[in-house]
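Researcher: We're teaching a course module on how sequence relates to structure. For the next exercise, students receive a sequence and then see the predicted structure as tokens, so they can try to spot secondary structure elements on their own. Here is the exercise chain.
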Amino acid sequence: MRLLLALERPDLPLFSVSWWTTNGIGLAVTLLIAIALTAFTRHYVRRFRKRAAGAGDDAEGRRERRVATVVGLIAGVLVVIVWFIFALDLLVALGVNPGPIIASAGIAGVALGFGAQTLVRDTIAGLFIFLEGQYDVGDVVDLTTTNGSVSGTVEQLSIRTTAIRQFDGTLSIVPNGAIVITNNRTRGWGRAIVDLRLALTEDPEKVRDVLEEQFDELEQQEPFKDWFRERPKVLGVTQLTDVAEVIRVTAETAPSHRVECERLLRAKLSQRLAERGFATPPAPVASPAAPSRPPNV
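Model: And here is the predicted structure for the students to work with:
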């Protein structure tokens, strides 16, 4: 309504009393709404992302991450719309008719389309990532892109890009159209794999008996009883070297705790085998480097 009123009175001197009376209050209200909505959406997006980061791997945790993703996308769209409306109001107040600009947007879009194929590709890819639920905010993913691999936690998903926080703290911004393969480590289940190196003289069956005894204890201990989806298994000897045999243990775990489970399980099993007197292979000795020849004089 205010746009129509301003268009009907294009003869108002800029920044005069009548100009401020006609346009000032409306512009101020639109600007305040845009600022308030931006601050409001940022606050709630951060809030939902924190909840998603601390969510578990159950159905409730997945729902929290999905909600955080949806809230982030909707908030981004609303902020763009409200600032676009303010920009239109400002143009009209300054005496610029936005009609020809909007009408020419189609022609300009066709002209720019040939140079904006990457932007279109990223947007379409981001839309399908969201609709298919390939990953959400808070998920741990490995992304294979056209320029390499990126691994970490999804901090933000927009229509055009994905923000990944890597293990060392680096924040990587990946265009959605550059993603070739997505490996989601937060869906379903994970498998902890622990390889134990023992001396060739050790009996694998005796080792198995000790490990099975340890599994009975770990199934009742925190945090393993919450992480294990099923009892760990001893696969047996998977590798032989000149001085060692490698016995592999696997366990299905909650996906987000797979790495932690591997570390703790390796420490517990190695400690138990050492307490029972099982010998480990000698550490490899590095051969000394050959002395460099002095330069000829």
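Model: If you want an answer key for the exercise: The first helix runs from residue 2 to 8. The beta strands are 140-145, 148-157, 161-165, 171-175, 179-184, 190-199, 233-240, 244-253.
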